[in-house]
Amino acid sequence: MLRDKSLIPLSHQHQHALALCVRIDRAAPIGDADLTAWRREAAELFRGEIAVHFAAEEEVLFPAARRFKELRLLVEELLADHVWLRQSFAQAETGRMPAAELSDLAKRLSGHIRKEERQLFERLQKLLSREERAALGEALADALKDANQTCILPNEATRLRPR
After folding, report:
1. Residue 155 within any structural domain of the chain
2. CA-to-CA distance for 50 and 32, rounded, in angstroms?
3. Considering the domain boundaries, does residue 26 fall inside one?
4. Count of structural domains, the chain
5. Distance in angstroms (rounded) separating the CA atoms of residues 10 and 22
6. Residue 95: strand, helix, or coil
7. The domain containing residue 131 runs over which residues?
8. Where are the alpha helices (DSSP H) in the chain?
9. Considering the domain boundaries, does residue 95 fall inside one?
10. DSSP state letters, 125-153
């Protein structure tokens, strides 16, 4: 299904996060020499975009979805993911995240995003009226205004290399 314009800003941010996940997966196993750079990049993306993204979902999107009984369990799962992901990004920020946990973060974040895109967004687009989707889009735009609008470019250590 085509993504409704009210949800496109969230989907664009999902693409930025998925790009990091794919790069982490392709770089595995990440050596100790590059681990600090990968942690730094993950923490930077969290600070600049994902933290604001999570807040927008929790304050705007999830309450709209909770109105529908069929989406409540899914919203609870997504909220639990947010808790785990925040803790994981905090470990990256403080330099306490081993390489294996960085890979776990990428897998969990990727799964979380796909769950939102394929389940939550698809159902919401069908359940909300055009007017409700427009109001949701306006509220999301306001909630996302403080997020960075640029994609973080890889540095030398986190740039993908040919295999």
Report:
1. no
2. 25
3. yes
4. 1
5. 18
6. coil
7. 8-143
8. 8-27, 32-45, 51-56, 62-66, 69-94, 99-115, 122-127, 130-143
9. yes
10. HHHS-HHHHHHHHHHHHHHTTTS--SPPP
Handedness of CA 140, 144, 149, 152 (dihedral sign): negative
- Report yes or no on 71 lying in a domain: yes
For residue 101, the domain's CATH number is: 1.20.120
> What distance in Å separates the CA atoms of residue 61 and residue 63, rounded to the nearest whole number?
6
> Are 99 and 30 within 8 A, CB to CB?
yes
Query: Which tokens hold the place of 36?
Result: 């600090």
Determine the Cα angle at 80 with ends 75 and 82, to 5°: 95
Enumerate residues 6+ apart whose C-beta is below 8 A from 130.
Answer: none
For residues 35 and 41, is the Cβ–Cβ distance under 8 A? no
User: pTM of the entire structure?
Assistant: 0.90
Extract the tokens encoding 6: 């009210």
Q: What is d(CA 92, CA 39) in angstroms, rounded to the nearest whole number? A: 5
Helix axis angle for 32-45 and 69-94, nearest 10°, is 130
- For each successive 10 residues of the chain (163 residues), what is the average pLDDT? 92 94 93 92 94 97 98 98 98 95 97 98 97 97 83 65 63
CA distance 13 to 9: 6
